[in-house]
What does this fold into?
Amino acid sequence: MSFALRTAWASLRARPGRTALTATGIAAAGLVLGVALTVAYALSTGFGRAADRAGLPTIEARFGDRDPADVDRVVRSLPNLEAASYRFERTGLRLEAPGHDTRQGVLQVVAGGRRGYAIVDGRDIADRAGPPEVVVERGLMTDWGLRVGDDLHVGRLGPMRIVGASVAPDNVAWPLAKTARVTVSEQALLARFGARPGERFPVNTALLWARDPSRADVLVSAARQSSYGLRGLRFLTRGGVEALIGQAAGIVVALLVAFGVVAAGLAGVLLVAGAQSEVRRALDRIGLQRAIGAAPGAVVGVHAARGALVAAPAAAIGLVAGALAGAGPTRRVLASLNELAPGAGTVALLLAGLWVAAVGLVTVASALPAWRAARRRPAELLRGGDVAGGRPRAGRTRGGLAALGARLVAARRLRFASVVAVLGTAAGVVLLLLALATLLTRLRDDPATLGKRYQLTTRLPPQDTGAVEAIPGVAAAALRYSIDAVSATSLGSPLKVIAYAGDHTRFEAPPLASGRRVRSAGEAEVGVGLADALGLRPGATLVIQPRSPREARFRVVGVVRTLQDEGRVAFVRPDRLVAAGAALDGPMVLALRPGADRARIAQGLRALGARADAVRGATGDNGAFLGVLAGLLRVVAGAVALVCLHALVGALALTARERRGAVATLRSAGADARALRRLLGGAAAVVVLPAIAVAVALEALVLSPLVARLAAGYADLPLGASVAQIALLAGALSVLAWVAAWVTGRRLVREPVLAGLREES
It folds into this structure.
C-alpha cells in the first residue's frame, strides 16, 4: 500500500495540469451533488423537523367560543390523551409597524401548557401579568423587517413589545398565507383589562396530544362523540396539517426534490466517467509498467490510490461549495412554508456520507478499468488500445481543420463515447431544468394545467346564469361550490369538495385514472391523492363530514388525476351536501369561446352588476415565493453548466495533449491561433452534436417521466422540453464549445512548437 501511495503521489506531482483537470471535474460533480442532495434532504424533511421542534399537536380542534372550564372537563375524559392546551383566537385584526400594515392579523391568546409553536429568535411570552409583549410569526417579521425588541401595533391593544419570533408548522408563513399570527399571554391581558380573580377569556381552539399518536383516530372519534353543543367543530390531525401545507407548495417542493435525485444520478455518472477517463489517459504508462514486470495488483493499487488522492480534497471542496450555494435559497423556501432547515451538524453528517461515497466511487471506478487494462498485453497498451484502426480512405483529408479536429477526437472511440454520454447527460438535466421552470410558470399562471376549462369567475346568483351565457363569447356558465370537509372514515383527513349542479366536465375535466364520470347526485369522482389516502376505488363509498350537522355519502365512480389540493378533492353534485345541511357558496364560473373578447364580456358582466375575475393557477401569484424557487433552479443550473464546460475543456485538452505532435506540425506550417480554434472547434462540434441528440432523448424518455412520477403520482404533469428550449440548449452548448476551444487554444499557443515536434519525431 505504501508503494501504491508513493507511486500515485509521484504521478500526481509529475503532471500537475492533468491532476488539476481531473480534480476540477470531481469538484464540479461534487458541486452538483452537494446542491442537489442537501436541497432535496432539507425540503423533504422540513415539515417533520419543524413539527417535532414545535411540538405540533396530534389533533387541533376548532369550535365556537366556550368557557375553558367546560371544554377542559370534556377533554380530560378523552382516552389516549397525554396533554391538552387551549387558546382564544380572533381574526381580522389590524397589525401595524412603521411602513407596513394589514387587516389580516390573527390574535392568539394563550394560557399555560404547550404552545404548538417553536421560538426561533428571542424568547416566549411569560405566563404572568406584566408589560404588554407579543410573539410574532417569523414570516411577518422577515417580510416587514421587524426585530426582537421592536414595537408592533396590535389592534385596539396598541403597541406591544416583540419578545420572540415563532414558527408554527400548522400553516404556511406570511405572506404565502393570507393571515399573520401574533401571540399574547392571557394573564398579561387580564391584568391589563383589570379583570377580577378567576375571570378568563373564552376558548375556541383545543390542542390535543395523544399518548399513542398511531391511534389518533381513537382520540378524534371520542372527541367527536363528546362534542355535543360545540358549534362549528372542526378537527385537523398532524397528517391533515401536512396535507394542507402541501396544498400551498407541495407539488413545487416535490418537483425540486425529484430533480435533486436526478442531479445526484448525474453527479455519479460524472464521477465514474472522470475516473475511467483518467485511467484511459494512462494506458501507455500501464503498458510500460507491465513491460518492466509490475504485477497487475500493484498497477491497480496505484490507480486506486491516485483516484482517492485526487478525489478526497476535490470532492470535499465541491460538496461544501454546493451545500453553501444551496443553503440560502433553501432556507428561504422553508421559511415560506413555516418549516426549519437542518442544523449544521446534520448537514455535516450528510456531507460526510456523500464525501465517503464520492471518494469510494472514484476509487472503485479508477481500479476497475486499471484492472482490465493490466490484464491486456503490454504491446497493445503501448500502441494505444482504443485508437481506431483501419486503412485510410480516399478523401479522408477533406474538410479542412475543423474536420481534422473532429477526426482527432473520434479516433479514441471509447473516450469519445464517454464524453458524449457525460455531456449528453448533463445537457439532458439542463433540458429538464428548463422544462421544470416552464411548468412552475404554468402552474402559477395557466389554469388549464389543473384541468380547468373556465377562464373567468364572477359573483352572481344562480338565476342570472342564462343572462351570463347570453353574453357574446361565453360558452357556458355555472355556479361552482367549494367547501372544506374531512373524511368520516379517516377522521381528521381533510379534503376539498367541489360541486356543480350539472356536468362538471364543461368547466373542470381532470383526466380519469380509472372509472367514469359523475352522472347522478349520489356519485363522486375523487382525486388520486384522496383515493390513496382513504383506500378508495370505483365502487367504494366516500363518507364525508362537511361543516354541517350530518354526514354525506357518495358512491365513488371515478378516480381522476388533478394537481389541486394534492389530489385530495371530490367532484360531486350539490344535492346531498344540501341535504346534509352544508352551507354552499361559490362563484359563477365562465367557460369562454376561442378568441372571445374579454373586454366585451367584462362589460356585459358590469351591466349585470358584477365584475370579471381571471382564474389563477395552482400556486397563486406569490411572486416572492416563486422567485426563491427560481433562485434554487438557477443555482443548480449554474452547477450543471460548469459540468458541461468542464467536459468540453477536458476532452479538448486531452486530445491536444495526445496529439501534440500533429498540432505542432500544423503550427510549424503556419497555423495561427485562429486556425487552432477552428481545429478545436471541429473537435468540440463532433462531441456537441451527438450530445444534443442524447440530451433530447434522455429528457423525453427518462428524466421527465421519472421526475413527474417521483414528484406527483397523483397528477398528470405536463412536463417536457419544448422545441424552443431544445434550440436554446443547442445554442448554449455551441457557446460553451467556443469557450472551451478558445481556452484550450490559448494554452496550445503558449506551448513551444519544438516540444511537440520532438514528440512527433
Notes: Residues 385-397, 619-623 have pLDDT under 50 and may be disordered. The longest strand covers residues 81-97. Residues 238-281 form the longest helix (44 residues).
